[in-house]
Write a structure and sequence with these properties.
This protein has 73 residues and is mostly helical. The chain is 68% helix and 0% strand. The chain has 3 helices and no strands. It is globular.
């Protein structure tokens, strides 16, 4: 469980980062999309990068990767 690994501030930053990345995206409420973004944010936090900017960047990288995997629209 996430709460076992991260302090309160980090968990709040992770939630804020997920919300910021997904908020205005066309698929932002899609479970699979949010999960992909969240997994990247969690990996970032596990590596010790827990600042809000670092976590948002990790989420944005997941968006770019997801777009690349889907191919051209």
């Amino acid at each position: 469980m996430i709460s076992e690994h991260f302090d309160t501030r980090t968990r709040i930053n992770m939630k804020l980062a997920l919300d910021r990345v997904c908020r205005h995206r066309p698929h932002g409420e899609d479970h699979g999309f949010r999960r992909s973004v969240a997994e990247n944010i969690i990996r970032c936090a596990f590596s010790g990068r827990t600042g809000i900017g670092q976590l948002v960047d990790a989420g944005e990288r997941a968006v770019i990767r997801t777009r690349a995997e889907r191919g051209p629209a």
